[in-house]
Amino acid sequence: MPTQEKITYCGICEGQCGIVVTVEGGKAVKVRPDKNSPLSKGFACPKGIAYPSIAADPDRVVEPLRRLPSGNLVPVTWDDALDDIADRLRTIIDRDGGDSVGLFGGHALLDNYSGFFWDAGMCAALGSPHNYTSSSVDINNYWAIGSMLYGHPLINPIPDIDRTDFLLVFGANPLISHSSMLTAPRARDHFTGVVRRGGRVVVIDPRRSETAAAFDWLPIRADEDVLLMASLLQTIFAGGLADQDALERQTTDGGRFIRDMVGGHTPESTEHRTGIPAATIRALAHDFATTPRAAAYGRCGISLGSAGTLAKYLMDALNIVTGNLDRVGGYVFGEEFIDLQLITHLAGAATYDTWRTRVDGFPEVLGTAPAVSMAREITTPGKGQLKALIVNAGNPAMSVPGSGELGRALQQLELLVVLDVQQTETAGYADYVLPGVLGIERDCLPWLNSGHTIKPFALWADKTVEPPPGCREEWWVVDQICERLGLVPSPFPLIRELGETGLRLTPQQTFDLFLRISPRGDLFGQRPDGWNREKAWQNPQGVILEDELPTDVLREKLYTPDKRVHLEQPKMRDELVRHTARSVNGDLPLRLVSVRELRTCNTYLLNVEKLMTGDRRQRLRINPVDAEAAGINSGDMVTIRSAEGEIEVEALVSEEMAAGNIGLPQGWGHNGGWRLANAAGGANYNLLTTSAAETHDQLSGNGHVNGVDTAVSAVRTPGARVPALHEGGR
Ligand SMILES: Nc1nc2c(c(=O)[nH]1)N[C@H]1C(S)=C(S)[C@@H](COP(=O)(O)OP(=O)(O)OC[C@H]3O[C@@H](n4cnc5c(=O)[nH]c(N)nc54)[C@H](O)[C@@H]3O)O[C@H]1N2
Ligand SMILES: Nc1nc2c(c(=O)[nH]1)N[C@H]1C(S)=C(S)[C@@H](COP(=O)(O)OP(=O)(O)OC[C@H]3O[C@@H](n4cnc5c(=O)[nH]c(N)nc54)[C@H](O)[C@@H]3O)O[C@H]1N2
Ligand code: SF4
Ligand SMILES: [Mo]
Predict the structure, then answer these.
(1) Cα(589)–Cα(681) distance, integer angstroms
(2) PANTHER family, alphabetically (predicted)?
(3) 44 alpha carbon to ligand 4 midpoint, in Å?
């Protein structure tokens, strides 16, 4: 077989970097950044470059595995696995109903539209509310606000980063994460571009993150952003700095509700909570409101807090109240390549709070339920108790708050099927581990990112290499199980009905159809310049469709019936009251936040030798003042204690943390079937978080993992230390 170079993009994170894959003997042997990619222009990070090593990982699952009563996993044929899984599901469904079966879709479905929609489709076909995604420990509060304010969950305005003069960043670290819910390939260039043009970037973060260090850092006490935001808004209203014209034009109530809601939250009343002096808050409010082109942007620092929906609401309100919504250099609406907003709207799938979850009464978000409830859905008897679960491209046993409780609950399931490329901690509880494929081994479509990409962008790329012979695409696996159960897996009722007549569309056919009927589509030849799948695949680098995102398009973009933004949200007032009442826990005085690292993605990639070179250990960052108070030095083993549990980790005393806050990388402390990851040591962050419903974001059920109350003390047993990386490794 000749050596070939094939173009695609990397979908490991939202950076969407164009890559060139060298294929030799049917295997990916090298990946390099694609200089000709219109948006990423020759950038890719070490994770994307490591794709061949990820694909060739010696621990990779390459054939279906079944658990024996002895606990060992043994290889089985696909037919045997699928038949047995379907038989066992059939027994459960016949006895307890379709609502006793569920799915969990993880972060690795980001570039995997087929996997994501087939998961959602199986739940819809079963009539099951047990449709869980990692988005519920991530961004479900963004979707909730999309629905409340703009009439559609998938509407998420983004900062017009290339034209703004003031970017206010709440809890995001794009220099490491490569940006999230704002797809800006070469993120660093776009963020630093603001300053190069003479503008300002202020980063609000309890940690002097890589991004905070590159710009103006404003330290805050973790999980108190909503009080800062309320005070910024209060100052803006009280100082007559609100853009009243814009408010009257764009919103239903001219901003009166929010003005009243924040009225009592003067900077003086919140400074003791946020740790930010009132004078600083006033100056920031003034600067933000008087810069003609300004935008506020935030990510996991706020959405993984205890009141993420309120935080996103207040952040959007900052943009709206200052007249920056839908204006050049402000907070603008993206454009999807495939118009999933329209399609989900027409299909009745663009929902929020149309039903509540059984055990916790959380509102559904886009038809999904929160992962923090999963453990209780498994253990709470009654109609709708979760008895069987398929986990697709996620590792909830580590990623979901309250890992300890969830791990115990997963063992109670009658059937757990894990579709992954590795034997993860979740796979450790599974009856079946089925081998999925990697992004370069299937066709990829940035279905989720498309609507918040910095420019309208056409992208859908074919696979570049065949997967190992025993591996199967995730949608195919779900489809095969459904076929055996007589189900058509689609969240779209029309497609389900079509399937029931015998015409089962593949993901490619379904999304080709969606593309062709989208505004950019070819309407089956009626718009000869329009797009279809074939044309997209002929342009695997992607095509910039417009140089800029449009502005002054509010009425076209909104899905609210009156075409105005609904800032009047009484639930927000209740949330602000709830949050304001949160007291500082004297026994657990330090707020714990997560640290994301360049060479891991959430809980995986610690098994890739190439990414584990150098001094890679999990270390707890602690400010010198807090370290001294606890008698801790760098290199000491320390105990972190929360209301939920304790873990032991190594300390790193560093001024990168603002006093009162500690920072720990998540996704360490492995004990699955991945040898190098296990040998990397460390402890699971989410043993400190809880699944208790009342601690999470009430309006979306989104998990609370940032700003958790903790205490740190020196480990009493001297000599304890984390094992070095290669000890006991392969
Ligand atoms: N404490 C704490 N917890 C957090 C976070 C935090 O910051 N702190 N972050 C949260 C966020 S933002 C997220 S998104 C979630 C992530 O939560 P999860 O999605 O549960 O975790 P990941 O580690 O991303 O799991 C991805 C899994 O997919 C597998 N995989 C990778 N590529 C493929 C593929 O192509 N096909 C298949 N089938 N499998 C694949 C990997 O081996 C891995 O097991 O975690 C959340 N949890
Ligand atoms: N290298 C790498 N890239 C990734 C990932 C990865 O694991 N590794 N994961 C991907 C995923 S799934 C996602 S969702 C994105 C996330 O993308 P980002 O949100 O940009 O990444 P985080 O590192 O979670 O950034 C959150 C920041 O908020 C800060 N923070 C924590 N608590 C608070 C708080 O209470 N208030 C404020 N103001 N700040 C706070 C943290 O210190 C951190 O700097 O990254 C993606 N990209
Ligand atoms: S930045 Fe994200 S998309 Fe780009 S190569 Fe790295 S992991 Fe892949
Ligand atoms: Mo995420």
Answers:
(1) 27
(2) OXIDOREDUCTASE YYAE-RELATED, TRIMETHYLAMINE-N-OXIDE REDUCTASE
(3) 19
The CATH number of 4-55, from 3.30.1850.10, 3.30.200.210, 1.20.1740.10, 3.30.70.260, is 3.30.200.210
H or E element, residue 201: strand 200-204
Which residues lie below 8 Å from residue 699, measured CB to CB, with a gap of 6+?
141, 144, 309, 310, 363, 571, 575
Q: Which two tokens stand for residue 203?
A: 């980063």
Query: Looking at the CA of 439, which ligand is closest?
Result: 1
Whether 65-138+338-443+467-489 shares its CATH topology with 160-325+565-574 is answered no
Q: Which ligand is nearest to the CA of 593?
A: 2
205 CB within 6 A, ligand 2: yes
Contacts of 620 (CB under 8 A, 6+ apart): 638, 640, 649, 650, 651, 652, 662, 663, 664, 712
Beta strands in 15-165 (DSSP E): 18-24, 27-33, 65-67, 73-75, 101-105, 131-133, 158-159
Q: From ligand 3's centre to the CA of 378, what distance in Å?
A: 35
Give nearest CA residue, ligand 2 atom 23: 596
Atom of ligand 2 nearest to the CA of 138: 14
The CATH T-level fold of domain 65-138+338-443+467-489 is Rossmann fold (3.40.50)
Q: How far is the CA of 46 from the centre of ligand 3 (A)?
A: 8
Residue to mutate, 10, 180, 284, ligand 2, most ligand atoms under 8 Å from C-beta: 180
Hey, what are 446's tokens? 């940035």
Residues around ligand 4, an ion, CB closer than 5 A: 138
Using the mean position of ligand 3's atoms as its centre, give its distance from the Cα of residue 44 in Å. Answer: 6
Give the N- to C-terminal CA distance of the chain in Å, as an integer: 32
- Segments making up each domain of the chain, as ranges: 4-55, 65-138+338-443+467-489, 160-325+565-574, 583-714
Decide yes or no: CATH 3.40.228.10 for domain 160-325+565-574: yes
Q: Which residues touch 136 (CB under 8 Å, ≥6 apart)?
A: 365, 368, 369, 370, 371, 372, 700, 701, 702, 703
Question: Structure pTM?
Answer: 0.97
Mean pLDDT by 10 residues, the chain (730 residues): 93 97 97 98 98 98 98 97 98 98 97 96 98 98 98 98 98 98 97 98 98 98 98 98 98 98 98 98 98 98 98 98 98 98 96 98 98 98 98 98 97 98 98 98 96 97 97 98 97 93 95 98 97 98 97 98 98 96 90 98 97 96 98 97 97 98 98 97 98 96 98 75 41
Question: 180, 14 in Cβ contact below 8 A?
Answer: yes
Regarding the domain delimited by 583-714, which CATH topology (the fold level of the hierarchy) does it fall under?
A: Barwin-like endoglucanases (2.40.40)
Plot region of 324 (φ>0 → left; ψ -120 to 50 → alpha; else → beta): alpha
